[in-house]
Write a structure and sequence with these properties.
Elements (H helix, E strand, L loop, with lengths): L7 H4 L28 H12 L1 H8 L30 E3 L2 E3 L5 H15 L7 H11 L2 H15 L2 H7 L12 E17 L2 E15 L8 E14 L2 E11 L13 H10 L8
Antiparallel strand pairs: 1-2, 3-4, 4-5, 5-6
Helix pairs in contact: 2-6, 5-6
Length: 274
Amino acid sequence: MSPGDEHDGYGGSGQTRTRLPEGNTGDVHGGTRRPARGSRSLLMAVGVVVLLVAAIAFANRGGGGPEGTSPSTGTPGKAATAPTGTRPVTGHDGTVPTGYAHDEQGAQSAAANYATALGSTDMYQKGPREALVRAVYAPEVADARVADLDKGYGDKALLGRIGLQEDGTAPQGLTFVSRVTPVGAKVESYSPDRATVSIWSSSLFGLAGEASQNPVTEAWYTDVFELRWVDGDWKVVDSRQTDGPVPVARDQRASSAQDMADAVEQFGGFTYAR
């Protein structure tokens, strides 16, 4: 996909995770990771917690791929995301690619694209956030997700710590960077109507520009998406997130704030596919 394609809306603006700071209500997106729980309401809460992880960790900060085999093919992890020639998507809903194949490959493609969309700058603005969430989540959970995420991402104190204005946009002269780049996908379980897919990704988050007090930093996460086949497409019903795996950083000189801002504006995003 070229940088100027119809999906650049979310790919170009990027994505990340967020953790609500300690002391915020309900520990939404904060503290230690939570295991899966039997209660549907608790699962919903965990799904919301997952989406807020990097921004909060960023707001509170002071100043090789996963191993294993694919359960369906028995091939090494790196082969699980090798290209297959299957068309990844057939359309889009706003800035979110949709219309995935009804198979394991389609589930992997959906999870990778949804991880990218849910980490984008759109998540910090009310209107774009609601449109994005309704495009990604199954109808039966979308309303609850919209309400919960409005509380998290719309929190003025959080936005202030990140360095954003109350409407979720960057101050004049700065570029808000929130971008997720999937490194690989793995099917944890699959049936014709449900799938669990893990996405290992790198994220960039911060404000680029000469006057930035919150420079762009990198983090690594693994997101696990519970997907359901709904009305001819894969949709998210629940998700959770863990840190890493994190590679050893190389001794490279950090780019200037202006170089980072220029790169984010000039390099578009991709539609990800198995």
